Amino acid sequence: MEKIVFIKNDSYFIPGVYTYPDTNGKYPAVLLLHGLLSCKSGDGFMLEKIAEALAKNGIASLRIDFCSCGESRRSRRDYNILSLTKEAKTAYKHMQDNELIDKNRIAILGHSYGGVIAFKTADLNPKCIITLNGAMTSNLYEDYLQTKDEYLIDKNGYKYTLIPQSDGRIELMYSNFFELHIKHNNNYPKYDGRILMCIGVNDPRISPEDGKKFFDSLENENKELIIIDDANHTFNAKTLDYTKLNELMDKVNEWLNKNLK
Question: What phi-psi label fits residue 138: left (phi over 0), alpha (psi between -120 and 50 degrees) or beta?
């Protein structure tokens, strides 16, 4: 069962979709955070498939559109690490107030840049944090940052650049995204809860080796690592072949059965 929601956040609403299991009772749940300039469905419907896999395992989920993405009506000028973190925290609190969800059994899962935001919300003390090819220490933005002296200026005087995406889109990005990312990335709240990091060996966008180094650097005894061979940045979801994503979710659900349920 799915339910569309619009979550109040200051003067605007965050679009979201709850997915529930076909059982009764208070559910454990996962907040699903999409990657850079994606949407709540996820690239290749990745997060929809993850929500379905969780529901079959008796776990509810909420996936949201971040600022200016998907159905969000918020300005792209507000798209940055601080505003995305605030939106994720607002969505998490909405889950805590949901009478169908066990507020003490909520995990946060982030794909790519959503992984950055998942770790940024650690001060909420979720039951678990899960990342899928998380961009926590990535040089993903290095090429973009080299264009900082080539910014265009919009009619209100704000600096922006155009970012080509792998699916053919050309996305507008304002300079404050890069400025705030540099200032606040790699500065995460302390977290002693359970951590699961998932890495696709063939990810061309986020270095698997960087992911492993970040995992090794975590001062947390409750951490585990899942490696998926022959999987790219979306665990091949963009190809609409979900074989590797299903393999991943089988392992994630097995881990959640031990650490969330």
Answer: beta
